[in-house]
Amino acid sequence: MLTIAQLEEFGVNAKEGLTRCMNNEKFYFRMLKMGLGNDSFEKLESALAAGNLEDAFESAHALKGVLGNLALTPIYTPLAEMTEMLRAKKNADYVEMYKPILELRNSLLAQV
Q1: Contact at 8 Å (CB) between 12 and 71?
Q2: Would you put residue 89 in left (φ > 0), alpha (ψ -120 to 50) or beta?
C-alpha cells in the first residue's frame, strides 16, 4: 500500500489532496482508490479508440475534476492538456497521448 511519502515522491501533491479530505489520511486513500478506479478512464479509452472526440472530451473533463481534487498532478497535468485539446477539437493522436496517462493510473491503482 502506498504512503503519503511515496505519493509525494511520485509527484503527487498529497498535502493539497489531504487538505481537501479534511486531513484524514484514511479518507484520502479511500478517495484515491475511488478516483483512480473511476469508470471514466475506460470510457475515455473507448471513445478515443472510436475517434469519438465529443464523448472523449466529456470523460476527460470529468476525470480532470476528480484528479484535480485529489491533487494527482502526474496524471492531472497531461490529462488537463488533453482535455483542452479535445475541447478545441485539435487533430492529435489522442490514443498515444492517453497511453502513459493510463499506465500511470494503472500503476497507482494497483498500489492503493
Answers
A1: yes
A2: left
Distances from the Cα of 47 to the Cαs of 32, 51, 89, in angstroms? 24, 6, 14
Residue type, 39: D
The alpha-carbon radius of gyration of the chain (Å, integer) is: 14
Phi first, then psi: what are they for 72, rounded to 5°?
-85, 65
In this structure, the number of other CB atoms found within 10 A of the CB of residue 59 comes to 23
pLDDT digits (tens, 9 = 90+) for 24-72: 999 999 999 999 999 999 999 999 999 999 999 999 999 999 999 999 9
Query: Rounded to the nearest 5 degrees, what angle is found at the Cα of 111, between the Cα atoms of 24 and 101?
Result: 100
pTM: 0.91
In our burial notation (b when 16+ CB lie closer than 10 A, e otherwise), range 67-90 reads: bbebbbbbbbeebbebbebbeeee
